Structure formats: C-alpha cells, structure tokens
Amino acid sequence: MKEKLYRFLAGRYGMDDLNKFLLALEILFLLLNFFIPNGILLILFYFIFALYVFRSFSRNIVARSIENQKYVRIRSKITHTFKAFFKSLKDRSYHYYVCPKCSQIIRVPRNKGMITITCPSCRTQFDKKS
Ligand SMILES: [Zn+2]
User: Fold this and answer.
1) Which of 15, 42, 90, 106 has the greatest number of CB atoms lying within 10 Å of its CB?
2) How far away, in angstroms, is 46 Cα from ligand 1 center?
3) CB 74 within 8 A of CB 81
4) Closest to 22 (Cα-Cα) out of 77, 60, 68
5) Does position 99 have pLDDT exceeding 90, yes or no?
C-alpha cells in the first residue's frame, strides 16, 4: 500500500507558492460561504480546489514551474509597488519607484524634474518625475 502511494506521488509537482495562495483563497471562500451562504462563493471554492488538486498532482512540472514563476513575478511587483508607495510617503527627501522589468525598488532624490532612471540590477531605463 505504502509503495503504491509512493509510486503514485513520484514525479508529481506538489506544493509551491501559487498553490499556497490557491489554498489560502479556498479557505477564504469557504469561510465567506459560512457567513454569506452564496452559490457563487461555493462554485469559486470548488473551481479553485480543482485547480489546486490539478496543479499538485500534475506531472507536467515545467508548465507548473512557469505558472509559479509568473505568479511570483506578479506578486513581487504588487508587494514592491506598495512598499515603494509607503516608503515614498515616509521619506520626504527621496522618491521610490519600482523597475517595470525586474520589480527592484529604486530610490531617487525628489524635486529634480523629469529624470531617466536606470535600474541598478537589470539596466532598464525609464522616465519618471522625481
Ligand atoms: Zn530592473
């Protein structure tokens, strides 16, 4: 029995950051469904659960890894945008921007007019008002 389980799980994708996010989303929809009984929330829960199970037991590891990389890139862009926004609010002498290519947070001095910013890690150039 144990050997059959090992054979079944061998080569399967398993858990990653996107699956953790999907799991958290499932729990959120399930909890919301308890407080607000709604068919749409339950359908969303089942849809995300099916996606979670599909991704976990998938043998196409390359495709799942690419999906996870896209998710991590989008998540880091969102979190870095918020971090840069709050740092800009706190710091009165510097402005914080996020690189559009690699999501690196870049600090530039304020009140210098339109400037071209070069990202120190990926060398991407973009124009911003400082
Ligand atoms: Zn960059």
Assistant:
1) 106
2) 38
3) no
4) 68
5) yes
Residue 38 has pLDDT above 90, yes or no: no
- CA-based nearest residue to 52, from 103, 18, 3: 18
Q: How confident is the model at residue 130, as a pLDDT?
A: 82
Question: Is residue 8 very low, low, confident or very high in pLDDT (cuts 50, 70, 90)?
Answer: confident
pLDDT for residue 45: 92
Number of H helices, E strands in the chain: 4, 4
Question: For residue 49, which of 69, 29, 72 has the smallest C-alpha distance?
Answer: 29
- CA of residue 111 to ligand 1 center, whole Å: 22
Q: CA 108 to CA 127: how far, in whole Å?
A: 12
Residue 19 CA to ligand 1 centre (angstroms): 27
**For the chain, where are the E strands, in sequence order?**
94-98, 105-109, 114-118, 125-129
Residue 78 and residue 70 in contact, taking contact as beta carbons nearer than 8 Å: no
Distance 106 CA to ligand 1 centre (A): 9
* Residue 116 bridge partners (DSSP): 127
pLDDT, position 5: 86
Residues forming a β-bridge with 115: 128
